[in-house]
Amino acid sequence: MWRADGRRRQFFVYIVSNNSMTLYTGVTNDLEVRVHAHKSGEGSEFTSRYHFDRLVYFEMYDLALDAIAREKQIKGMKRAKKIALVKAMNPTWKDLAEGWLPSA
Questions:
Q1: Is the N or the C terminus of the chain less surrounded, counting Cβ atoms within 10 Å?
Q2: How far apart are CA 49 and CA 29, in angstroms?
Q3: What is the Cα–Cα distance from 75 to 15, expressed in whole angstroms?
Q4: Contact 46, 5 (CB under 8 A)
């Protein structure tokens, strides 16, 4: 599927975190916009309250249904397994969005 701007439409499952390592898992079709919303404190009451400021994990999918199924799978995991998932991709928990978004 293609977007109006000619780019291939993709869907993302992502995990954002904060200084206290609280985790939030979500799904979106525009990762940059969604991460910027988290960093700006926009969105749900939960994400605003916990000040998620760091993208620590993401996966890309071509189909929305696949991304949604994976999001549900990750949300069903115990915290230790989510942490292991993040560490496998991002051992230092750096902000993977650093450099491609304006500072919030």
A1: N
A2: 23
A3: 10
A4: no
Neighbours of 84 (CB within 10 A): 11
Tell me: the pLDDT tens digits for 43-77? 778 878 888 889 999 999 999 999 999 999 999 99
Name the residue type at position 10.
Q
73's tokens: 């799978």
**Residue corresponding to tokens 């904060």:** 18
Which pTM value belongs to this model? Answer: 0.87
End-to-end CA distance of the chain, in Å?
Answer: 31
32-46 in b/e form (b: 16+ CB < 10 A) is: eebbbbbbeeeeeee
Residue 28, strand partner residues: 12
